[in-house]
UniProtKB/TrEMBL annotation:
PANTHER family: TIP120. This is ARM repeat-containing protein. Belongs to the CAND family. The keyword Flavoprotein does not apply. Pfam families: TIP120. Residues 1028-1169 form the TATA-binding protein interacting (TIP20) domain. One of its GO terms (biological process) is SCF complex assembly. Gene3D superfamilies: Leucine-rich Repeat Variant. Keywords: Repeat, Ubl conjugation pathway. The lineage of its organism: Eukaryota, Fungi, Fungi incertae sedis, Zoopagomycota, Kickxellomycotina.
Length: 1213
């Protein structure tokens, strides 16, 4: 890859106008991002030098762009140039004249080396980059700011991680890096020392042992002998860093380190003690197998340190607590700091924090059993719940929650196996539970405004409920604890805190029976739960509804199983059920579902106790809701338990379809309980539902037909016989049935055939009369209009539905009688030949007909009928039959291609139908392939025109199995047999493939067309006009293939049809370039305007199309100048959001520039052809609007880009 005019770009980077400098760097960056090819060495060298100089530009945006571009450039240049660039940047950092640029330069160095491509495997060259970095750190260590030193030390760390092995070949450089990092460890800047500790750890981990051993020995020696706490802490932190990343590297030293730290940890002070605890924690977490006999001493160190608080008297707090008011209501009004005494010079909190982390590591290490953890660690943590420092208190609470999780893992397997937990672990938790709850309540009281404390406290309580629900329930039932739960309803309380409180209640109601004590607690807290139904805080309403539902279930269970008197809770249930009904219309789906589930649960559990008025409101709300949006079947059945059939049937008289559908669902739920559910009057219910069907014959609710299927087996035979007249209305030719309606109809007819054999004949006769009447009307209309197309648009629905219902009717009858299907049955029961043939085809599709050569002969005779409708139905029936018995496909195909004109069309139609059935339903790949070979060999050997249905049959293979068969069709397009080539091309351009909703199939089809148009365009001669409209349709944006992906606060627009659209534009270009005489210039020009308003790649292809059209038909382009100008104007006016990424801004700028180039090209041509500009150049035309837009937007670079486009076109010309 070569970047054109590199020298010109370099000059633009030096331009006085910083906008031009920015655009020049962006051009290089965009070019590099769009390619994977290598860059010539000289180009890479000069660009690297220019970008390095740009880092010292006086404009920050230029610096930032240069930093970004340099990172991209490093993917394309040699390590030699990289080293030179790194050296130059380091030299500039040391240059006092550029002192104010040092921060940018060091940040660039760190960023660029962090993004080194993984493909670079020259570790020695990468390691060499550390040399200039170490040099500048050594020579200018007193001049550099802490920010610059941090960047440079981080850069060394990056090099060590990436190419530490490379230092193994250069002992001097390894020694230099070691000395520099050890020097940085002595810095008086804390941030630099921290980075040096990390870098030294990486040096010892990644540099070969023979070079890093010296550093490790030096660090260990200084750590072991140092009497300075700060120095010892720094060296210990290096060892800790190594242990956390590669424990085996210092495993041989760990025992010595542990012994030293355990001997001083209790007596050490400040930072030294913190580091000591950190070392112990690291050993427990990363090398537990090496702890051995030191475990008890480590426990002691952690438990001793967690109570280290020499400057504070907790007993005084407890005395103060005794005098405080026990009211909690006002203590949850805000989340600000509680103003507790803090000593800025007291750093003992960091010791306690380190101790808590050590205990957390012990909990998760599996070094001791859960009983010992609970007794040793648990008691110590509980005592620190009232810790004065927020950060330490939070860590204490988290650590206790972890302890409960560890215990839960031990308890659960024993519970599942019905075993006693070892050593009475559950009992031990229960003994501690009361103290935990009481201490947590006291802690919340002591720190009433600490939201995090409350959240963690409730999280612990929720975990305790899972292990010891009784103890938690008994303690919370005390009246003085009620106040803390009022935080669940306080307006200003943190949302997560509310959710934690609600989760605690959820766990409590789900796991613990309602005792009298807990019932008193519930009486107080239930109002807080229902108060949150109307909260506007995310998740709080839906969670509170779930808690309320569990409370209702718990109340009902306690009353049924333990005889608890819950009468006092009925009022709350009634009022809550009334309150939630308004929420079933919420825009939040979770709230809608929660409201309906709560209402249905309340009705199910309390029934008539909630009052007839509330029950009526529930039913009315149910009737008004759209089932598809929220109503689950379980909720409907629950509501059905609370009403009677008479009430439900009243809903069937409602006028609107949504209410009617809800009523039908309700009656259906009642009908599922049998005759009792219908109050002993199934005939009455049948009449009500038939009334609905009769009133909505042209748009029958499918649920009404499903309901009839349930009711009819319960009704009398006379009622069933009379119902056929109403049902036949739904089979009228004016009704357009959706698949669900047809399915429900078939189920209904099958039920009647199975349960009422005596009425089958009457239903059959009614079906026949209905169909005959419909067909007679159609035939008369067709004769009057002299149009055969009426056959397929008017009676088809009726024929299809009637034949399916007829098949279902007799399927039910034959199933009840134990009789097998046969063609003889159809001859007896169906007097109309067309209805018989269609029903036979359905039976064949279902595989209910046995193999019968005589049947094939009979159907073959009907293929020669003088009646076109009969021929069509016979072909479909025979095709479906052969599709289920593919062994006879070869005989059918042979007879079809050898037939005379009288039979050939129908037989080939049967071949296509059979092919479709076999390809779509057969699971035998060998059978499918044999049918494929049969068709393909005929096409390849054809000497005369191939019937169009044969390529259509080939297209079926390409549609269902595109990966396997479309390439074979493409290969056949290059056949030396012209007839075969044309047939193959016809196959993959069938409308069925173009129109498929599967974007991958459309993409494969377009790829095939592109391949033919590029490599064998002559094969498309005479065919382009046939598929040209469909191809141009593919250049339009298909909105149905666009989806929005939500990623946190951001939304990304994904176009699944983009790949296929790109190929469609490329196909248009190939056709215009290779066979221009075959295309329609005016239609092709219309594609240009669409391409301007599309993605960048498509815009590039559009420019190529324009180039060809300028030669082929410039007038067609000029006549479209107005629409082109509209598209460009739209692009110029496009605004990006404030959160748009820089890449999006650059892409828009590039698209705008490219569209300007295209438009200026047409503008130049237009000025030479003034006679064609009557529309496009008028004052009110889009052309003039575009010119006005450009001239009035000079403040945002539009004019500059337009002028740049003009220069580009002029140079090209």
């Amino acid at each position: 890859m070569a970047i054109h005019n590199v020298q010109q770009i370099i000059e633009r980077m030096k331009d006085r106008d910083f906008d031009i400098r920015i655009m020049a760097i962006s051009d290089v960056s965009n070019t590099l991002k769009d390619t994977t090819e290598s860059l010539p060495r000289d180009d890479g060298k000069v660009l690297a030098a220019a970008l390095t100089n740009a880092l010292s530009d006086n404009q920050s945006q230029v610096q930032n762009n240069a930093m970004e571009c340099l990172g991209v450039l490093f993917k394309f240049i040699s390590t030699e140039i990289m080293n030179a660039t790194v050296t130059k940047i380091c030299d500039n950092i040391g240059d006092k004249k550029l002192a104010d640029r040092r921060t940018t330069l060091s940040a660039t160095l760190r960023s660029v080396l962090n993004r080194l491509p993984d493909t670079i495997d020259d570790n020695e060259a990468i390691a060499q980059m550390s040399e200039p970095v170490c040099t500048v750190l050594t020579k200018h260590k007193d001049e550099l700011s802490s920010e610059v030193k941090v960047d440079l030390v981080d850069t060394v760390s990056t090099i060590l991680v990436r190419a530490g092995e490379g230092l193994g070949t250069n002992a001097n450089l390894a020694s230099k890096v070691q000395d520099v990092l050890l020097g940085m460890l002595e810095s008086d800047m804390v941030s630099v020392r921290k980075r040096a500790i990390v870098a030294l750890g990486k040096f010892i981990i990644h540099v070969p042992d023979q070079y890093s051993d010296e550093a490790l020995q030096f660090i260990m020696q200084r750590y072991s002998t140092s009497n300075n706490d700060v120095e010892a802490s720094n060296y210990l932190r290096v060892l800790v860093t190594i242990a956390r990343q590669k424990p085996l590297r210092i495993a041989h030293l760990l025992s010595q380190i542990l012994e030293r730290e355990l001997s001083i940890v209790d007596s050490a002070e400040g930072e030294r003690r913190v580091t000591s605890l950190m070392a112990l924690e690291t050993a427990v977490s990363h090398s537990p197998e090496l702890i051995g006999s030191k475990l008890d001493r480590i426990y002691t160190a952690g438990i001793t340190a967690i109570s280290f608080d020499p400057n504070y008297n907790y007993d005084a707090d407890e005395d103060d607590d005794a005098d405080e008011d026990d009211e909690f209501e006002d203590e949850f009004e805000d989340d600000f700091d509680d103003g507790i005494y803090e000593d800025d010079e007291d750093d003992s909190w960091s010791v306690r924090l380190g101790a808590v982390k050590l205990l957390a590591a012990l909990e998760q290490s599996n070094l001791t059993d859960a009983n010992k953890l609970l007794s040793k660690v648990g008691d110590s943590l509980i005592k620190r719940f009232k810790e004065r420092e927020d950060v330490v208190r939070s860590e204490v609470l988290v650590t206790y929650a972890i302890l409960l999780d560890v215990i839960k893992k031990v308890i659960k397997p024993h519970d599942e196996q019905g075993m006693d937990v070892e050593n009475g672990l559950v009992e031990a938790v229960e003994q501690q539970a009361q103290q935990v709850v009481s201490t947590l309540l006291a802690t919340i009281k002591t720190h009433p405004k600490s939201t995090e404390t409350k959240q963690l406290a409730f999280a612990i309580l929720a975990r305790l409920v899972g292990i010891s629900p009784s103890q938690v329930a008994d303690t919370l039932s005390a009246s003085e604890s009620f106040g803390i739960l009022q935080s669940a309803s306080t307006r200003l309380v943190n949302a997560n805190l509310k959710l934690d409180v609600l989760e605690l209640l959820s766990q409590l109601f789900e796991r613990h029976q309602i005792t009298p004590e807990l019932f008193r607690f519930i009486a107080a807290v239930s109002a807080l739960v229902s108060k949150n139904f109307a909260s506007t805080v995310f998740q709080v309403p839906s969670t509170s509804l779930t808690v309320a539902k569990k409370l209702v279930i718990a109340l009902r269970a306690s009353a049924d199983e333990h005889g608890t008197d819950i009468s006092s809770a009925v009022g709350w249930v009634r009022q809550s059920a009334r309150d939630v009904l308004s929420l079933v219309y919420s825009n939040d789906q979770a709230v809608r579902t929660g409201a309906i589930e709560f209402a249905s649960t309340a009705v199910k559990c309390f029934g008539d106790l909630i009052g007839s008025d509330v029950l009526g409101l529930c039913l009315a709300t149910l009737a008004a809701r759209d089932k598809s949006s929220a109503l689950a079947a379980t909720s409907i059945r629950a509501l059905a338990n609370g009403c009677c059939t008479a009430d439900a049937c009243e809903l069937l008289k409602l006028g609107d379809i949504k209410s009617l559908t809800a009523g039908l669902e309700l009656v259906k739920s009642l009908a599922n309980y049998g005759d009792a559910g219908l109050a002993g009057n199934p005939n009455g219910a049948l009449d009500e539902v038939l009334g609905v069907v009769g009133r909505h014959a042209t748009a029958t609710p499918p649920v009404s037909l499903a309901l009839l299927t349930i009711i009819m087996p319960l009704a009398s035979e006379d009622e069933v016989q009379r119902s056929i007249g109403v049902i036949n209305k739904t089979l009228s030719s004016s009704a357009v049935h959706d698949p669900q309606t047809t399915t429900e109809l078939c189920g209904l007819f099958e039920t009647v055939g199975r349960h009422y054999p005596a009425v089958v004949e009457g239903w059959r006769a009614s079906l026949f009369r209905s169909w005959s009447s419909t067909y007679s009307e159609c035939a008369a209309l067709r004769s009057y209009q002299n149009s055969t197309s009426t056959q397929f648009t008017y009676p088809e629905n009726s024929l299809s539905s009637t034949s399916k219902c007829l098949y279902a009717l007799y399927s039910g009858l034959f199933r009840a009688q134990g009789v097998a299907w046969s063609s003889d049955h159809l001859a007896e029961i169906v007097a109309n030949l067309m209805l018989a043939l269609r029903t036979l085809g359905i039976a064949a599709t279902h595989g209910t007909l046995p193999a019968d050569n005589e049947l094939i002969k009979q159907l073959d005779v009907h293929l020669g009928s003088s009646h076109e409708d009969v021929r069509t139905e016979a072909a479909l029936a025979l095709g479906n039959y052969v599709g289920k018995y593919p062994d006879v496909f070869g005989d059918l195909f042979t007879s079809a291609v050898a037939s005379d004109a009288k039979y050939q069309g129908s037989r080939i139609q049967a071949v296509k139908t059979a092919t479709d059935v076999i390809v779509r339903t057969s699971t035998d790949s060998a059978t499918i392939d044999s049918v494929w070979q049969c068709l393909l060999q005929f096409v390849l050997g054809a000497q005369e025109t191939v019937p169009d249905l044969i390529p259509q049959s080939l297209a079926i293979f390409g549609l269902v199995y595109p990966e396997k068969y479309l390439p074979q069709i493409a290969t056949s397009t290059g056949s030396p047999n012209a007839v075969a080539a044309i047939a193959s091309i016809t196959a993959f351009r069938r409308d069925t493939i173009w129109a498929t909703r599967t974007s991958s199939i459309r993409r494969l089809t377009l790829l095939l067309l592109y391949s033919v148009a590029q490599n064998k365009p002559s094969q498309l001669s005479g065919l382009v006009k046939g598929f040209e409209p469909a191809l141009y349709k593919q250049t339009e944006v298909d909105e149905s293939l666009i989806r929005i992906i939500t990623m946190g606060p951001f939304k990304k627009r994904v176009d699944d049809g983009l790949d296929a659209r790109k190929i469609a534009f490329q196909c248009v270009y190939m056709l215009v370039r290779n066979i221009p005489d075959e295309v329609t210039p005016d239609e092709t020009a219309a594609v240009v305007a669409r391409g301007i308003d599309d993605e960048a790649d498509i815009l590039g292809t559009t420019r190529l199309i324009v180039k060809e059209l300028l030669v082929l038909s410039p007038s067609s382009l000029l006549l479209r100048l107005d629409s082109v100008a509209e598209a460009v104007t739209k692009l110029v006016g496009k605004k990006l959001t404030g959160t748009a990424l820089r890449q999006e801004h650059e892409s828009l700028r590039e698209n705008t520039l490219s569209s300007f180039v295209l438009f200026v090209t047409l503008e130049r041509l237009a000025k030479k052809s003034s006679s064609l500009l009557a529309k496009g150049m008028t004052k009110d035309g889009a052309y003039e609007k575009l010119r006005t837009t450009i001239s009035t937007r000079g403040d945002d670079k539009t004019v500059i880009m337009y002028e740049h486009a003009t220069e580009t076109v002029d140079k090209t010309a």
